[in-house]
Amino acid sequence: MKIHLLITIMAMISCMTAIGQELLKIEGSTSLVDIEKEWEHETLSGVADNTLGAMLDCFDRRWPTWMVKAARKTMKKGLRLERNGDSQPVVFNDPKNGWVEVSMSGPAIAEFMKVCYWKRTNGHRLFAIYFGQPIEPSIHFVCFYDYDPQKHTLTPEPQIIDGFRTTGDTKFYYELPQEGKDLVILEFGPKGYLRHTFKWDGMKPVFSKTEVVEDIGDGDHCDEEEE
């Protein structure tokens, strides 16, 4: 009986994964593996203005994903939350704080995306787009870009939090700010759960402290958006 149940569950997972893969093909999504390897090597041009939506549009022209498309669809509707049912994108949009999050409501696709920006003291903005995929191959990375309002470009800044390193036995996840300005990195490894806080200094997140934590709460969050 248990064997039959296991076979049924595996068949359902396989089917849902196939549905997810088909959705990715239809949406024309770029593999997160490819984005992680290549994003830092190319400056993106043609950013229409200094809004989060314009930066997302520019990124999507070079690195198209179903997640950015879902985010932009909801943002253009002026909605704060859009949930379309099982195995469909769930979008949380916070235009006041310049922050948006996209995930999937069912297990067909495990990818997710979180986006925000900071206002820099030199008139530029630091744009951050966090991609994650908890299932194998497990991927978690943030693409950091400097937005130049004169050149209308997004220039990669892969070393923005240079100095933070983990071992091969450690997993780490990011908490981009939705309110406030702190960037947080959650580390899970041999030393337990660690919370690394990076304070905003006007130009970039700078390491502030490391805490051992039992429970992982909501992260601190970002700057005001101008639509």
Structural commentary:
By secondary structure, this protein is an alpha+beta fold. The chain is 25% helix and 34% strand. The chain has four helices and twelve strands. The chain has helices spanning 2-27, 32-38, 52-62, 66-77; strands at residues 44-45, 81-83, 89-94, 99-104, 112-119, 125-133, 139-148, 153-156, 171-175, 183-189, 192-200, 205-212. The strands form two sheets. An eight-stranded antiparallel sheet has the order 1-8-7-6-5-4-3-2. The protein has a four-stranded antiparallel sheet with strand order 9-10-11-12, with no helix packed on it. Strand 11 (192-200) and strand 12 (205-212) form a beta hairpin. The longest helix has 26 residues, at 2-27. The radius of gyration is 18 Å and the shape is globular. It starts with a helix and ends in a 15-residue tail after the last strand. Residues 1-26 and 216-227 have low confidence and may be disordered.
